[in-house]
Amino acid sequence: MRHTFVFFILLLLSELSLTGARAADLHPPKQVTAGNGFSIATTGNGDATFYLVGPSDRAKQTVRLGNAIEVAADDVRTAGRYIATVCGSDGCASSAFYVVAAAPAQLSFLVHPSRVPVSAKDAISAVAFVFDKFHNLVLQPVKVDFNVAVKDAPAISRSLPTSNGVAWIRLNATRKGGPAQVVASIGSISEHRVVQQVASDACNLRIKATRKGNSVAVETETVRDCSGNPVPDGTVVTFTATDAKGKTTVDAPIKRGTARVQMPLTGGATISVASGVAMGNEVRIGGTP
Amino acid sequence: MISWVAFRRLGLVLFAVLLLARLGPNTAAWAADALPSVQLNADSISPRPIEELTGKNIARDYAYAWQTLAQALDQDRSELLDGYFTGFAKETLSRAVADQKKSGIRVHYIDHGHKVSALFYSPSGDAMQLRDTAQLEVQVLDGDKMVHQEQVALNYLVLMTPAADRWVVRLLETVPGF
Q1: What is the Cα–Cα distance from A238 to A33, expressed in whole angstroms?
Q2: Contact A78/B at CB under 8 A
């Protein structure tokens, strides 16, 4: 019983001593906007040392307890949790507060892929991260406008709000080939990326054939995709001649928009053309005149 | 007569006691060297699902990032951040280390583990956003004098991006809540 009494007396004394140590106290605002100076009210009296510790800052100054402590705008530019501590003759007291991002000022914009076939659905992925001027991620939802535009073709636009500082979207490629400007913007802030929109697979392949003695010259019309964009040079076109002896196949790359080939031929034959999965027309050539 | 097994056990106990006694004053240094535990939950990630191996790598690399962060702050060596931090996160933490050197005010973390949820994995796989609830003991020291100490659960919003052979932290921001 006596021991219990002594224990409680000691506990009380220790609590009183702690209370004394907390005589100096400080009251920062719960939340501050990055890059804005503010004041921290203090209680107590006498000189003390003030410490401010943030994600990127460490500051120390001598202050007078009972007066407000002025925190400079430069000391709170990084968003995150800060610990303000004041140490007087009777101990230290601390309080934490948060600095949140300022207004949106810049976008970090990721766009993939760098080349995409025209008219491809959901082929372009665009991700925008919204930052303030101090490179803090802006967590308040902000509407981001996404836009894909090709010269002389209608643009595709969509808007989305950010979630945790991020907005993302999948966009269709436009129907026209060429460099597409992919833009993310918030008001007057915008970021541009270029995606090269290339022709899709060949479509409506057409050939013409002309006999030249014991051979036949076969040539395609300009090879285009289904949207009318010229298929890139280098794309392989396959010509097949079927005659009484069997089949002869020749591959030729597109050069300046067309593919051409000369095939040996003695009798009559049927000539067909294909590129990738696209089949073209067939041409019948008669026997040697 | 004491048996050989009992003698060995006694030796091991003595060794452990000596080791703990040796570590006692240096517990902080030991804690900074330990790899913190990271539990990753990717159940609600979107729009791209996370591959099993990627999930393991993210958890491993995020743990290494925190380990190197604690070491960089303990030893005032910003070059330790090079391995697992990049971009804004590296800039922010490098400034913190530089400020520590200048002011003599140091922050020491004792890391008790991280519960991490993967939020966003970009469609092309080049960025992942996580939120982390970290159990930390935070100590603020002015020279050798401890001016603040707390056990705290802090919420971090994290952005990681793939580098050549690992995932690196591009953004590490404490937030009031999720």
Answers
A1: 65
A2: yes
